[in-house]
């Protein structure tokens, strides 16, 4: 295999692996987030882990392919090397994932608190509006037809023109 063939084969494998990752992301999209994300990490590690085939030539191949071929045809001793590469890359990927989770947890907690405060404020505002409506039934309604209308530029663009002229 020449250098160009080797590069072409890796390029084709990279495209196929990214396609498989996309399919895996679609298949796990319906799952609960704490199950979906680790499964996606495992899938990425399985598809994107390289392993060395020939230490003399520095030739690499996808570890999943080397493992499957060595187990299926019972040739070579590269399966254990590929499994150790899976373990090494998997440990690194999961440590990065857990770091990501540790950073995300306080941010989500803060966002939930902010959302709860906004909902409580909206409920208080609605309760105040109801009290004002009950106290003064003849008072004007809060909504104003001029304030709720879209700006003139937006309504002009909706009609398709930039300039609106009155009809004579």
From TrEMBL:
The chain crosses the membrane at residues 6-25, 37-53, 86-107. This is MFS transporter. It comes from Pseudomonas pudica. Residues 118-168 are annotated as: Disordered. Keywords: Membrane, Transmembrane, Transmembrane helix.
